[in-house]
Amino acid sequence: MEKVRIIIALLIVALSYGCGGNTDEQAAFDLAAIKVKVAKAKLTSANSFINVSGKVEAVNSANLSTRMMGNVKSLRVKVGDQVKKGQSVLILNSADLLAKKSQVEAGINQATSALKNAEKDYNRFRTLFEKGSASEKELDDMTTRYEMAKAQLEAARQMENEVNAQFTYTHIRAPFHGIVTNTFVKEGDLANPGMPLATVEGTGSYQATLMVAESHISKVDQDAPALVLVKSTGKRLKGTITEISRSSKNTGGQYLVKIDLEHTGDDILSGMFVNAQLTSKEAPLTHLLMIPEKSLVKRGQLNGVYTIDDNNTAILRWLRTGKNEDGMVQILSGLSLGESYIISADGKLFNGAKVSL
User: Fold this and answer.
1) Model's pTM, two decimal places?
2) What is the sign of the dihedral through the CA atoms of 127, 128, 131 and 137?
């Protein structure tokens, strides 16, 4: 009987130690596990987009040229210079125009003197005619001479206006505030009519210029919103479709579409390549499996997300992703509807890490 009591007592002690050990192991697990927050993959309403590529351009852009032929006397800017509207950019040699202007001024002086003499003769013959001392034929001749003198003076003055207008094409000025993006001549070069001399682009506003395939152009709406991703900076810009070409005759079967961009900032430059998402009017709304972009794990070109198995272990799952919209990314494969995934963690996660909700 005494032996039975001893055996029972030993069993009780053993059970007590066993329970105490499990409690300690559980506490240790809780301390080592990374606390995480999870969510379930669900369908999200999203716009249906047409994805196209293009580049950024300044809304205001001009190739400066001249209507005159002449040597470049002075190039007053260089690439990268900021210019204001009306600022001098380039001056051509205008010696021939100066000579022509002198001839015109001499012609004006001559025509002015001739008009004064014709006016005096006209007034004198009109007085004589009123007194009966001159015939009507003589008065008509003086009137014609006087009118011709006035016409000759007006012609000389208009020729002066023409010469002065030509002078504006020898002094090339910036048409708006902007930056010089290119120069095509240097001092001493011969400038020809229509030849580009310098390029000025405005810095205040930009637009995205896109080429849309014929299968999609009918789905694009004027004044519809668009989302533009600048590839080099990763910046996402909102915009509005402002121009849609209805002909592809000169664009190789593609249709030109322009988007005015909002809040571009100083890091956006003309010529940067972009990907644009244009809203389709045929299917304005659809339901996609989407998760927050911030929950993605990125390894180079790969995207993944951490899920949790039955043993509360973090498992890295690689995904195939689609479009991005307002901080959400579409999941094409790798995650199922209703499946749980980790959206945030109090520590650094790794594949196989113990986690607690």
Assistant:
1) 0.57
2) negative
